[in-house]
Prior knowledge:
With 82 residues, the protein is α+β, with helices and mostly antiparallel strands. It has one domain: 3-Layer(aba) Sandwich (YefM-like fold). The chain is built from 3 helices and 3 strands; from the N terminus they run E-H-H-E-E-H. It has a 3-stranded mixed sheet. The model has no long low-confidence stretch (mean pLDDT 94).
Amino acid sequence: MTSQIFANVAASISELKANPMKVVASGLGMPIAVLNRNEPAFYCVPAKAYEAMLDLIDDRDLLAIASARADEESISVSIDDL
């Protein structure tokens, strides 16, 4: 069975153990697929890329909330009433 690899750079677990920072640097800031017997075992995600992924997830969740609220009935309020 073959697995799809969702990264442009891949490294073996042996390469990662031998020089982890070299493997991370080889991805140029993007995730690296770490392979075990030519199958992806996990992805090594640099901190900045991980933070960007979390921001995208938060944005998606906030968009879902905003979209749900957009369908609610609006109430007109005067600034003087506040």
